[in-house]
Amino acid sequence: MADFDEDLQKHRRNLILISVALIVFDFADVKIAKVGILGTDLVVGNPSVLIAVAWISWLYFLLRYFQYWSTNNARKISLTYHNHLRLWFNLQAQKIDPNALQTRAVDLDSSARRFKIVERFANTRAGMDTKVLKEFSLPETLSAKAKAAFHVAVVSPHFVDQIFPFVVAILAPLATTYTQWQSIKAVIP
Transmembrane residues, as ranges (predicted)? Predict the structure, then answer.
């Protein structure tokens, strides 16, 4: 988490705390009777207001975390994914020709559904000439993408550090919907 700035960490922590609190309150069926502030007990007349404030806070923390995450760290996940695909490509290109990466302009064409190893030649009037050295099957392409996604999710710290707060945040409204389903069903005709 060394690459997190202080504000992102603060919003990440707040989002996780409010989400976990909402989940626990729903599953534990907590009823709020009074609130203690600095030793003073305040009797709550309408506890639903406190729950509404908690949900508004949850939405605020989700929005702020998303804003900080998207401007600061979202690109790191994509770079890790593409770097892992690049390592896979380099291994595949070396299987075709051990010197291919050093002696020729060989690249991975990932624009189509199936990956291709393409050799690019000098520019002509019509543009860059290319020759397909190998076209991978759809299962091979999906396997490479799945391995790269697994690497991002399990091996690198990006999933736990950056995506997990979103997962916990999404669980909060799902938990509320689950625990309140009978009430929701009664309202819907």
Answer: 15-37, 49-66
Q: Three-class SS string for 16-29? A: HHHHHHHHHHHHHC
Q: Is the dihedral of CA 56, 57, 59, 64 positive or negative?
A: positive
- Binned at pLDDT 50, 70 and 90, residue 1 comes out as very low
- Residue 11's H or E segment, with its range, is helix 6-28
Distances (CA, A) of 81 to 65, 106, 122, 140: 22, 20, 30, 16
Mean pLDDT value of segment 105-132: 65
What percent of the chain lies above the pLDDT cut of 90?
8
Is residue 162 classed exposed, middle or buried when 0-12, 13-18 and 19+ CB atoms within 10 A define those classes? buried
